[in-house]
Specification:
Blueprint (H helix, E strand, L loop, with lengths): L2 H15 L12 E2 L8 E3 L1 H4 L1 H4 L3 H10 L6 E7 L3 E6 L1 H14 L12 E5 L11 H19 L3 E8 L4 H16 L16 H13 L8 H25 L6 E4 H5 L3 H11 L3 E4 L2 E4 L10 E4 L8 H13 L4 E7 L6 H10 L7 E6 L2 E5 L2 E3 L1 E2 L4 E2 L2 H8 L1 H9 L7 E4 H4 L7 H18 L15 H11 L1 H11 L2 H21 L8 H24 L9
Parallel strand pairs: 5-6, 5-11, 6-7, 11-12, 13-17
Antiparallel strand pairs: 1-2, 2-4, 3-4, 8-9, 9-10, 13-14, 15-16
């Protein structure tokens, strides 16, 4: 249990003693930025003033009179009613022993018995991934990591749109490239795919099947589509694996379209009174809930809109027992949010059963100039190219360090630089510095009690390490990987400053050295755990 948890529980008991019922989880505990204001603070007294009809300072004193918590050395009341807590030295130092004992599991939250499905990337299997997909992959996987670390049961899911016009164009484009190998001039339209990757796919068909599919038939038409999807999806899976992203489940639109699932769903919604016909098309009455206009589900030509299979897909996800769905989508999907919430409400689900993480566009710069991207023309930098040139760690960190709703300007020069201005290098170098110290002092047994740590810099590091668990809870709740990046930078800066100002290995002070090296090891553990949430590795030497 963290110091914050201990304070929350103690304050909840004190509140009960003065006639105030409050859940421990509803009590805000903040880390004090100024050591003069203690280690932690709470605004509980101020938040309770209207309920108890008393001045905040009076409530604060009453709470202190009934407060019992072993980790507190003393507490103070500050205007207009803050309660500042100064913890016992041994309670702060004990975090080192806990970190060394728990290792990779330090920061793990208790099992919340709550199932979450995080769907991300879900790129159409029609070509190379672009950098929008890269940002979706970095954010989606980091969000899933945060949820998992916080104690949730998480599924990482990829929805494969393997039906519709885009795959028809894919099949036709491969057909044209295949026929080109036999001397025909390709006839690619503006909506077809012009990337050179399709030439490689056509050559693999030729190598495997020869001229078997030169004659246009229903069989050849379907073959080009399915072969292309399998090849493109295989490339996507490899690109994601190289990026450190692994999905637990792939769901296919084609499976949803099999059988009578869509028809049965439409009939269910019709029976509920949410389906009607207008001008030859069939509409869903999403305005009955949260949407600004009703949405078509069957077009005039009798074909389903993409929205209808999406509804069935989300119904299926909920039927699998998830209590929360998280969809990570690009910035062009804002109009999609309330229509899907509305469709879920038609089935009786709460609008809160689904949350959306909308991420903004990415611009890449190199040598001061923007690198343009174009999936359709095959020109410009792709996900694969960026990762190969810059490296997985830098791309994942930079793509997570800003809030998803902020535009991202990615500086390739900075991402590859070996300087303190590069946050990835800065963090990994902090880890490597600790590794170097531990190697130099490997003959000195670590003292997990860290009993000799007493300087201001050491106290700040201990507090930062102790705050790791609460940071994870807050970042998971907000789906905010950038909070992890901020935590990493703060801890890295503290390590570098401590290294510069402290004689960590002092063979004339073995007890002090043993505590300081234990602190360095604890810093290593937490840095590694924090960077892992972002999909970033550590380095022993740099």
């Amino acid at each position: 249990m963290t110091n914050e948890n201990l304070l929350q529980n103690a304050l909840a008991e004190a509140a009960k003693a003065i006639g105030l019922e409050v859940a421990p989880s509803d009590i805000t505990i903040e880390t004090s930025k100024d050591p003069a204001h203690g280690d932690y603070a709470t605004n509980l007294a101020m938040k309770s003033a209207s309920r108890l009809h008393k001045a905040p300072k009076v409530i604060a004193q009453e709470l202190l009179d009934h407060l019992s918590c072993d980790v507190i050395d003393h507490a103070e009341i500050a205007s207009p009613g803050f309660m500042n807590f100064f913890l016992k030295k041994e309670s702060m130092n004990s975090i080192v022993s806990r970190i060394l004992n728990e290792g990779d599991h330090y920061g793990d939250g208790a099992d919340k018995h709550f199932k979450i499905d995080v769907e991300f990337v879900s790129a159409n299997p029609t070509g190379d991934l672009h950098l929008g997909h890269t940002r979706g992959a970095a954010l989606g996987d980091a969000i899933a990591n945060l949820y998992q670390k916080a104690g949730y049961d998480v599924t990482r899911e990829y929805y494969v749109n393997d039906c519709g016009n885009q795959v028809e164009h894919l099949g036709h484009s491969i057909r044209e490239r295949y026929h080109e190998l036999y001397g025909e001039t390709p006839n690619l339209g503006p909506d077809d795919y012009h990337g050179v990757d399709l030439i490689a796919i056509a050559k693999s068909i030729q190598a495997e099947y020869g001229d078997k599919y030169l004659t246009d038939t229903k069989e050849s038409h379907d073959f080009f589509i399915r072969y292309g999807i399998d090849k493109e999806l295989g490339k996507i899976k490899k690109d994601m694996a190289d990026f450190g992203v692994h999905f637990d489940r792939f769901s296919y639109e084609s499976d949803i379209r099999k059988g009578t699932t869509i028809q049965d769903t439409i009939q269910f919604l019709r029976d509920k009174g949410y389906v009607y016909e207008k001008d030859g098309a069939t509409y869903l009455k999403t305005t009955a809930f949260l949407d600004d206009k009703d949405r078509p589900i069957i077009k005039k030509d009798g074909l389903y809109t993409y929205f209808m299979p999406d509804i069935c897909y989300h119904y299926d996800k909920m039927a699998r027992g998830y209590q929360l769905l998280v969809d990570c989508l690009g910035a062009d999907h804002f109009g999609y949010l309330n229509r899907m919430r509305s469709a879920l409400m038609m089935k009786g689900y709460s609008p809160d059963c689904i949350q959306f993480e909308i991420y903004q566009i990415v611009k890449v710069y190199k040598d001061g100039e923007e690198v343009k991207m174009s999936k359709r023309t095959g020109k410009g930098i792709t996900h694969r190219e960026l990762v190969e040139e810059v490296g997985k760690d830098a791309v994942r960190y930079f793509f997570c360090e800003r809030s998803s709703d902020a535009h991202l300007d990615f500086n390739m020069n900075l991402a590859t630089s070996k300087s303190k201005d590069n946050p990835v290098y800065y963090a990994q170098y902090a880890y490597a510095r600790c590794a170097s110290l531990l190697e130099m002092g490997k003959d000195i047994a670590l003292d997990p009690s860290a009993k000799t740590l007493h300087t201001e810099k050491e106290a700040k590091i201990l507090k930062q390490l102790a705050d790791f668990s609460s940071m994870i809870e807050n970042a998971a709740e907000a789906r905010a990987p950038y909070k992890v990046a901020g935590y990493v930078q703060t801890l890295a800066r503290m390590i570098h400053e401590y290294y510069a100002a402290t004689k960590i290995i002092d063979r004339e002070d073995i007890p002090g050295t043993a505590s300081r090296l234990a602190l360095c090891k604890a810093c290593q553990v937490v840095l590694k755990n924090a960077l892992a949430l972002l999909g970033v590795g550590v380095r022993e030497k740099m």
